[in-house]
Write a structure and sequence with these properties.
The complex is a heterodimer of chains A (256) and B (400).
Chain A: E1 5-16, E2 19-30, E3 34-38, H1 45-51, E4 60-65, E5 68-69, H2 74-81, E6 84-87, H3 99-109, H4 115-128, H5 144-156, E7 162-166, H6 174-189, E8 193-197, H7 201-207, E9 210-215, E10 218-223, H8 225-230, H9 235-244
Parallel strand pairs in A: 3-8, 3-9, 6-7, 7-8
Antiparallel strand pairs in A: 1-2, 1-4, 4-5, 9-10
Chain B: H1 18-26, H2 31-58, H3 62-66, H4 68-73, H5 81-102, H6 104-122, H7 127-148, H8 154-175, H9 193-219, H10 224-238, H11 242-256, H12 265-291, H13 294-302, H14 307-322, H15 324-337, E1 347-348, H16 349-357, H17 366-395
Helix pairs in contact in B: 5-6, 5-7, 5-8, 6-7, 9-10, 9-12, 9-16, 10-12, 11-12, 12-14, 12-15, 13-14, 15-17, 16-17
Classes of the chains: A alpha/beta (256), B mainly alpha (400).
């Protein structure tokens, strides 16, 4: 089974000072899989996804991405990062650069593509995201949903093998969540390997291959969306799902 | 079903726009505001009438006109002053051609330089001087014409190269070369006046800026030795007055260096300024670096950019833009602090003024000289502040 595994985590531990954020996470992601991680705030899910491209360094255990182990070796880390795209909750676009410059920055400086090639590729991605006409605006002139789609395009411009999404829709107004989720759905159906931290259960139900419920720095439960939604084994999972899925905060996905 | 007609767009009431509207809104909105306006105007008139009358009638401006060359270039040899004029013309030509090539961005700058030349040509100096100032206006106009011509793209590169080479060219022309008949070396003890003030300020700004940025980065380094050294340097320099740094550079530096190496007096003063201002620049830039959110580093790192690229492409551009106002404040005070070189016996603009006043022929003309000097300092300080504001606007695109 480990032959087509692209992310392998074995017993990953992480401390912030005395606080232990991750207490032995082990999981394996295969090529083309879509993983959704959910759980209450402070459960370590964001910390975990950030250890995958070493924005946070783990202190014990092993993380192997596409055959390269993440260690203190800076060259390994940079090599791994250029193969992993990441989308943040707060977009983190570069405000001093235009949308086009945001998307072409890494291909030009890391991949050493000529500018014309990078811009042609960027324009294609922006078209795919439905915002080619915004290419020469600055991030500050776009709506939240548009900014997040630029962020997705920026990550995809490096032609990554894996995409990480850290609560990509949590900072968005409800009417803009849809446009970002559509972009992610398209990406999932294209066969991208995705690790998504999100509470968008509609998205999870539709495209997730497996779901992981994090709480207190450990994986409490894992399973297919079917198992998680219909036969959760743990009380904590049941309780959390009932809160997340309660009709009060319903922004359900229309089934496609 | 009747369609509702779109309401016609009306013109705003006459009294709310234009000069009349502005006056009404800001100065005469109520009876007591009107009263205040009138009283203030009268007070201003009463206050400044004597000063204005003095400036236009009693003041003996010939002290400025007679010593203009001293004020401008100090003891710089008269037969070599054409080299300074050449520097001024090259600046005018560069400004004009930049205006012609890039348009609006350089317009104000070029127009200011050109019209300054034309204005000075109208003042009652000797005909020779007036023609030379006229030359500045001509240089700007010629540059504009050259810039407007449909040259191929390489003209832009020539102009950019011209700007980059302007500073070395300036130093070369002012200093001259040993054994070159057309422009013999002019010793720095002859440099003075506005020329020296400018050179000190330009050198101070161009070298303290990169040095300060490096210090700021060093102070945020993960390596304890570098961080410790930078912090120590910044705190020591900020803890001592500029005068003492200048003294140190001027008197102590030769003691530290081996005897064969003799550093020129002006260069020593320049080193003093650079060392001093860099510490302040470093603290300003550090403030800017801290204002860049953590997420910017993370996003750049997540794309696979290496440390130097993260800094150079993402963090520094944002940090530096945020600190333009305080950096410019720093540079304006540097420009004015150049007058402190008088204590290491260099004849900058202010010191020249004092030596002119020591001449018995101009006894008691303090007011004329100091008003003139203050006006000169103000014009150039304001020009810097204005240029910085334009730069902020130009770089602020996309910031809402």
């Amino acid at each position: 089974m480990e032959n087509d595994a692209i992310i392998i985590c074995r017993d990953v531990h992480k401390w912030f000072g005395n606080f232990q954020a991750l207490k032995g996470i082990s999981l394996t992601v295969k090529k083309g899989e879509v993983i959704v991680i959910f759980g209450p705030s402070g459960s370590g899910k964001s910390t975990f996804i950030r250890t995958l491209n070493r924005l946070e360094a783990h202190q014990r255990g092993q993380i192997i991405i596409d055959g390269i182990e993440l260690t203190h070796d800076v060259r390994n880390v940079e090599a791994v990062r250029s193969e992993i795209g990441m989308v943040f909750q707060s977009f983190n676009l570069f405000p001093h650069l235009t949308v086009m410059q945001n998307v072409t920055l890494a291909p030009i400086w890391v991949r050493r593509w000529p500018k014309s090639r990078a811009e042609a590729a960027a324009l294609k991605l922006l078209e795919r995201m439905g915002i080619p006409e915004q290419a020469h605006k600055y991030p500050g002139q776009l709506s939240g949903g548009q900014q997040q789609r630029v962020a997705i395009a920026r990550a995809l411009a490096m032609q990554p093998k894996i995409m990480l999404f850290d609560e990509p829709t949590s900072a968005l107004d409800p009417e803009m969540i849809r446009e970002v989720l559509d972009a992610m759905l398209w990406l999932a159906r294209e066969g991208m390997t995705m690790v998504v931290v999100s509470h968008e259960m509609g998205f999870a139900r539709e495209v997730a291959d497996r779901m992981f419920f994090f709480d207190g720095g450990v994986i409490v439960e894992e399973g297919t969306p079917d198992q998680i939604f219909h036969q959760p084994q743990q009380e904590r999972t049941k309780l959390f799902l009932s809160q997340v899925l309660s009709p009060r905060r319903s922004a359900p996905m229309a089934s496609a | 079903m009747t369609a509702i007609p779109a309401p016609e767009t009306l013109k705003p009431p006459r009294t709310s726009v234009g000069v009349l509207g502005w006056l009404r809104q800001n100065l005469f909105s109520t009876w007591y505001n009107a009263l205040l306006t009138i009283v203030t105007l009268w007070a201003l008139y009463a206050l400044f009438r004597p000063a204005l009358a003095w400036m236009l009638t009693t003041a003996r401006w010939e002290v400025v006109a007679d010593n203009l060359r001293l004020f401008m270039v100090g003891q710089y040899p008269a037969d070599q002053v054409s080299r300074i004029w050449l520097c001024v013309y090259v600046l005018g030509g560069l400004a004009g051609s930049s205006w012609g090539t890039w348009g609006a961005r350089f317009r104000t700058f070029a127009v200011a330089i050109g019209s300054a030349g034309l204005f000075l040509a109208l003042l009652p100096f000797s005909l020779d001087i007036r023609l030379r100032w006229l030359g500045l206006g001509v240089a700007v106009a010629a540059g504009l014409v050259v810039g407007r011509l449909p040259w191929p793209v390489w003209l832009r590169r020539v102009i950019i190269a011209g700007w980059l080479l302007y500073f070395p060219l300036l130093i070369l022309l002012v200093r001259g070369l040993e054994g070159v008949g057309a422009m013999p070396r002019v010793n720095t003890n002859l440099w003075g006046g506005l020329l020296l003030t400018f050179l000190l300020a330009i050198v101070g700004i161009t070298f303290s800026f990169p040095f300060g940025v490096l210090l700021a980065l060093g102070r945020r380094s993960h390596l304890p030795v570098i961080r410790g050294f930078c912090t120590l340097y910044i705190e020591v320099i900020r803890g001592v007055p500029l005068v003492s740094v200048l003294y140190m550079a001027s008197i102590m530096l030769p003691l530290f260096l081996p005897e064969q190496i003799r550093v020129d007096r002006v260069v020593r003063a320049m080193i003093g300024f650079v060392l001093f201002i860099a510490a302040y620049v470093a603290e300003d830039v550090r403030g800017g670096l801290q204002a860049v959110p953590r997420g910017q580093y993370e996003a750049a790192e997540a794309l696979g950019l290496s440390g130097p690229l993260v800094m150079g492409l993402v963090v520094l551009p944002q940090a530096l833009r945020a600190v333009i106002p305080s950096l410019v404040g720093q540079f304006i005070s540097l420009f004015k602090d150049t007058s402190l070189v008088a204590i290491v016996s260099l004849f900058d603009l202010l010191n020249i003024g004092q030596s002119v006043l020591a001449n018995p022929a101009y006894l008691g003309l303090h007011r004329e000289v100091y008003v003139f000097l203050a006006a000169l300092y103000w014009v150039f300080s304001y020009a810097m502040a204005y240029a910085a504001r334009r730069l902020e606007v130009a770089l602020g695109v996309g910031e809402r």
